[in-house]
């Protein structure tokens, strides 16, 4: 762990009772003002809801998968591309979805919902600005860039900034828009893009860490109403990219090859309204599958797509879990302590970075040593320190974590640093005796729909403690 410098930070650590994780994250900030801002932000989080997880019992039963957050967010943004109403079914009730809907409303777009069905109607001319106040709460706010450029020819979108899992650049999003002919200025923390005379183009959208899901989707959304043919080489092939393409095609767009590294878009003049149901959330399903394996239970997940989870399922089987799959259901059963395994995160169909933290919890209880290599995001091991506080033995060196399995973890008070790290800590809580308190579950609410209720239907004891 990175120690705080003595003097002022030692003093501040005491005053704010900052945990080891918060201290380590504070010292990563580049200057004094960012450190103070981060520290105060962390204090704010202490005043948020927390989970009390009382573990030690095997999960049993059946739950239904929610729709994929990473599809739903760009699909909602893509509704900007038509003036006709678009109806999206099975929209999960997540903080990030609420933020996206607020963002659309702030642009003068009509949003209504009945249960989990949301209708978005961007009749009239949407305002072209996505303000910092909303985008700072959710990185995916940048998804309005492509649709605004395509439909209105102008987009002013706040730069999203960094986050706890490392630098999150947007150069590839800008590269896509510029290749189509948009003129872009970065000023006062905003991307200011103008689309005078955009035309289809051929581009390579791959960065040093591989393809970008966000840039592929944003460019696809900008290109569907752009005259001519656009070819995206080095496109991300994640199922959510294909799902957004499916949504765009249901509006009358012509997109071919989404789910392969080469996506071809033929621009059309106009798109129409549609009804759509997004794909199931493979990351939620993977998280629940690990919960079953860790607690040595038996869990069925319905309404899911096991074919989107080939790499994680292979690891689960290697770890000793029995995994049965059907076209839209998954059954995970485990009786013994997990066997150790090695994973390397990679773009789809490789092992997803969004399940790395959860599998680290599984590895921490394995009978032997596992290695986990993170290749997508540079600082995505913050959960390791918190798992260590629960008795795990994780040694992180650069992008590799070596996890020496222990027989049991012990309940503790822990702090979540990001969305998937929070899930890893909940899993750790489910696997150990006693009550684990997880602070900052605000992150979980961004991406998991009522996780405590879903786990409760499987017999877990997870209580939300409201502040
Ligand atoms: C999406 C997912 C996120 C997931 C990630 C990787 C959403 C809302 N989020 O994030 O849950 O973890 O895919 O599967 O869908 N990069 C650049 N320049 C860019 C953009 C990205 O260098 O302009 C880099 C990133 O730093 C990272 C890699 O490309 O190293 C992949 O990131 P990307 O696929 O873009 O992630 P997101 O779309 O932000």
Model description:
The structure is a single chain. With 467 residues, the protein is of the alpha+beta class. It folds into two domains: 48-65 and 280-465, UDP-n-acetylglucosamine1-carboxyvinyl-transferase, Chain (Alpha-beta prism); 69-276, Enolpyruvate transferase domain (UDP-n-acetylglucosamine1-carboxyvinyl-transferase, Chain, Alpha-beta prism). The chain contains 17 helices and 26 strands. The strands form seven sheets. A four-stranded mixed β-sheet has the order 24-25-1-26. Strands 2-17-19-18 form a four-stranded mixed β-sheet, with helices on one face. Helix 7 (145-152) packs parallel to helix 9, helix 11 (282-294) packs parallel to helix 15 and helix 14 packs parallel to helix 15. The protein is globular. It binds uridine-diphosphate-N-acetylglucosamine. Uridine-diphosphate-N-acetylglucosamine binds next to helix 4, helix 8 and helix 9.
Count of helix runs: 17
| CATH homologous superfamily title of the largest domain | Enolpyruvate transferase domain
CATH topology name of the largest domain, in short, is: UDP-n-acetylglucosamine1-carboxyvinyl-transferase, Chain
Distance between the termini: 30 Å
Most strands sheet: 4 strands, mixed
Q: Which regions contain 5 or more consecutive residues with pLDDT less than 50? A: none
> Taking Cα atoms only, what radius of gyration do you get, to the nearest Å?
22 Å
> Biggest sheet: strands side by side, in what order?
24-25-1-26
- What is the assembly state of the chains in this entry? single chain
Mean pLDDT rating? 91
Which class do the helix and strand fractions yield? alpha+beta
The amount of helix comes to 25-40%
Q: Care to count the β-strands?
A: 26
* Strand residues, percent: 15-25%
For the record, the CATH architecture of the largest domain stands as Alpha-beta prism
The unique ligands bound to this protein are:
uridine-diphosphate-N-acetylglucosamine
Number of domains: 2
């Amino acid at each position: 762990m990175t120690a705080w410098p003595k003097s002022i930070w030692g003093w501040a650590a005491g005053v704010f009772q900052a945990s080891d994780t918060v201290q380590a994250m504070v010292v990563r900030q580049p200057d004094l003002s960012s450190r103070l801002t981060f520290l105060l932000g962390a204090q704010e989080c202490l005043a948020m809801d927390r989970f009390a997880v009382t573990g030690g019992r095997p999960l049993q039963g059946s739950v239904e998968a929610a729709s994929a957050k990473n599809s739903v967010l760009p699909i909602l943004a893509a509704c900007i591309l038509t003036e006709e109403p678009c109806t999206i079914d099975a929209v999960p009730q997540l903080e990030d979805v609420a933020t996206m809907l607020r963002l659309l409303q702030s642009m003068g777009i009509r949003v209504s919902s009945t249960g989990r069905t949301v209708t978005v109607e961007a009749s009239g001319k949407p305002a072209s600005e996505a303000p910092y106040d909303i985008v700072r709460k959710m990185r995916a706010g940048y998804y309005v860039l492509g649709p605004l450029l395509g439909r209105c020819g102008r987009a002013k979108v706040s730069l999203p900034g960094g986050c706890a899992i490392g630098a999150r650049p947007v150069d590839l999003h800008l590269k896509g828009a510029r290749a189509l002919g948009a003129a872009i200025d970065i000023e006062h923390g905003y991307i200011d893009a103008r689309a005078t005379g955009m035309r289809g183009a051929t581009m390579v959208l791959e960065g040093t860490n591989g393809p970008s899901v966000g840039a592929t989707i944003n460019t696809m959304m900008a290109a569907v109403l752009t005259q001519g043919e656009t070819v995206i080489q080095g496109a991300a092939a994640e199922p959510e990219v294909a799902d957004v393409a499916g949504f765009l095609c249901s509006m009358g767009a012509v997109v071919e090859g989404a789910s392969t590294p080469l996506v071809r878009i033929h621009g059309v003049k106009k798109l129409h309204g549609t009804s759509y149901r997004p794909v199931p959330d493979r990351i939620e399903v993977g998280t629940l599958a690990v919960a079953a394996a860790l607690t040595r239970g038996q869990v069925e997940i319905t309404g899911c797509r096991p074919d989107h989870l080939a790499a994680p399922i292979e690891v689960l089987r290697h770890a000793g879990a029995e995994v049965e799959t059907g076209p839209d259901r998954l059954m995970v059963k485990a009786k013994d302590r997990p066997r150790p395994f090695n994973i390397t995160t990679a773009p789809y169909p490789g092992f997803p970075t969004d399940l790395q933290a959860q599998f680290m919890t599984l590895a921490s209880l394995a009978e032997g040593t596992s290695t986990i290599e993170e290749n997508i995001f540079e600082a995505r091991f913050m959960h390791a320190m918190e798992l260590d506080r629960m008795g795990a033995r994780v040694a992180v060196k650069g992008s590799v974590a070596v996890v020496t399995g222990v027989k049991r973890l012990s309940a503790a008070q822990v702090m979540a640093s990001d969305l998937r790290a929070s899930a890893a800590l909940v899993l750790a809580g489910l696997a150990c005796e006693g009550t684990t308190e997880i602070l900052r579950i605000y992150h979980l609410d961004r991406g998991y729909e009522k996780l405590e209720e879903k786990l409760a239907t499987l017999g877990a004891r997870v209580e939300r403690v409201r502040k």
